[in-house]
Amino acid sequence: MDNGALLTDLYQLTMLQGYWRHGMRETAVFELFVRRLPERRAFLIAAGLEQALEFLAGLRITSDERDWLATTGLFGAEFIESLADFRFTGDVDAMPEGTIFYADEPILRVVAPLPQAQFVESRLINLLHFQTLIASKAARCTLAAPGKLLVDFGMRRAHGAEAALYAARASYLAGFAGTATVLAGRRFGLQVYGTMAHSYIQAHDDEAAAFESFAIAQPGNVTLLIDTYDTEAGAAKVVRLAPRLKRLGIPIRAVRLDSGDLGEHARKVRAILDEGGLTDVRIFTSGGLDEYVLRDLLARDAPIDGFGVGTSLDTSADAPYLDCAYKLEEYRGVARRKRSEGKATWPGRKQVYRRYDQAGRMRGDVLTIEGDPQDGEALLVPVMRNGERLHREALDVARDRALAQLERLPDELRDLDGAARYPVTVSARLRALAADVDRRVANA
């Protein structure tokens, strides 16, 4: 994957040349937020900050990249030469990964010389948008199937290699146990899970022989896929095979179902396994799962112990994008505000304060300007100063935060239909600042 500086939109570079030519290098403040929640989403979970900070800390425009820019004919030679020293030297405040947030609340603020703050827009949105999208989807699965084993199964239909890796990371952050994607296990320290494909069964002349050969080859990880031909017949073969494997010291951990009415098959398979003395063999399911299917299966008391969630998770199929924005809110010490129809922003450097009720549940947020303290917890914290990271946070710390935040959600926001709306109040001082900016622009 080429994650160089040219992984950006052309207009970032054309604006950079304009800023360079006209000497516009004063401090700018940009904030990244989501304008509105997708349908059926009552909350979002911030994710991807680790990769965003890695990008900022390592930002360089290499000689090869500069040479290529020269071939485009779009940029002057002096400007291209100036890019040799281009670095990010600014400050970043952000909501820590795993923080629940709502529409219009900034999850990241960049304070830096205007060319730097502008140039990083595209990649920051790219990194934070995707993992936030997937973590928010995964959190809904976590809420729908509390206490169940959840595994990311979506690599093969993810939109590219980076998406597959970051979907595994984001889903783990939001409560999944691990992933089937091996490289994600290596890169992020995740538990990897896997069984077999139907092709393994089909490659053998006999289904029971396929089960046995797999068990002998993988004696410490025996999960058998039993629905290639007839699900209940497959379960019966597992029962007959189990004593022979036991004599070899090979336990059967689970069976997997991947098709049909998963709830009904699970019920029948559970009865067959139990009658055969395999009460400790778990049932794991996959195939077309999402949070709604999980909710419905558990509402039917389906005896399923774990779920592999794939395509719907890694593509966030029902809500495949967030209306993310990264907007200029201050330049040269003066608050700025976009007023475009349907896309107006709140000006200035902002902070979000969260209040909780006596039971520790989220009660409401206040969006205000920095320096206007409110009751509650300030959600944006310093993460980078002068281009240097202040600390690194382990993924498990962010995961613990996300799970704790989900526990603090009001009951109505845990509903998958997303009808309830969480109260976010805009402070009087922020409203007054917006009015001041509007008057100044009107009189300009």
TrEMBL record:
Pathway: Cofactor biosynthesis; NAD(+) biosynthesis; nicotinate D-ribonucleotide from nicotinate: step 1/1. Keywords: Glycosyltransferase, Ligase, Phosphoprotein, Pyridine nucleotide biosynthesis, Transferase. Signal peptide: none annotated. One of its GO terms (biological process) is NAD+ biosynthetic process via the salvage pathway. Residues 375-433 form the Nicotinate phosphoribosyltransferase C-terminal domain. Residues 6-128 form the Nicotinate phosphoribosyltransferase N-terminal domain. It catalyses: 5-phospho-alpha-D-ribose 1-diphosphate + nicotinate + ATP + H2O = nicotinate beta-D-ribonucleotide + ADP + phosphate + diphosphate. Its EC number is 6.3.4.21. The keyword Ribonucleoprotein does not apply. Residues 150-331 form the Nicotinate/nicotinamide phosphoribosyltransferase domain. GO terms for molecular function: glycosyltransferase activity; nicotinate phosphoribosyltransferase activity. It is an enzyme of class 6 (ligase). One of its GO terms (cellular component) is cytosol. InterPro entries: Aldolase_TIM (IPR013785), N/Namide_PRibTrfase (IPR041525), NAPRTase_C (IPR041619), NAPRTase_N (IPR040727), Nic_PRibTrfase-Fam (IPR007229), Nic_PRibTrfase_pncB (IPR006405), Nicotinate_pribotase-like_C (IPR036068). The keyword Transferase applies. Transiently phosphorylated on a His residue during the reaction cycle. Phosphorylation strongly increases the affinity for substrates and increases the rate of nicotinate D-ribonucleotide production. Dephosphorylation regenerates the low-affinity form of the enzyme, leading to product release. CDD domains: NAPRTase_A. Belongs to the NAPRTase family. Catalyzes the first step in the biosynthesis of NAD from nicotinic acid, the ATP-dependent synthesis of beta-nicotinate D-ribonucleotide from nicotinate and 5-phospho-D-ribose 1-phosphate. This is Nicotinate phosphoribosyltransferase.
